[in-house]
Amino acid sequence: MSDTAPLDPRLLSILVCPVTKGPLVFNAQTNELISEKAGLAFPIVDGIPVMLPDEARRIEG
Q1: Which of 4, 28, 30, 47 is least surrounded, with the fewest CB atoms within 10 Å of its CB?
Q2: In whole angstroms, what is the distance from residue 21 CA to residue 30 CA?
């Protein structure tokens, strides 16, 4: 399976940032869920978001 499997829109509608409990924005270009408030990008692997802060990439914002 590919690392860029599509994310179910229903899943996106219920997920929140595990750090801030705030909204997430899907970035199709990087295949990540972005928490602007936390400054973190959570990867999506095989269509499954990896919502572990230790696995997230820090982003500049």
Answers
A1: 28
A2: 22
Q: Answer whether residue 18 is part of any domain.
A: yes
CA distance 21 to 53: 12
49 beta partners:
44
CATH code of 19's domain: 2.20.25.10
**pLDDT interval class at 27 (50, 70, 90):** very high
DSSP 22-43: ---EEETTTTEEEETTTTEEEE
| Domain membership flag for residue 17 | yes
What's 51's DSSP letter?
Answer: -
Give the model's pLDDT for residue 11.
86
Domain contains 4? no
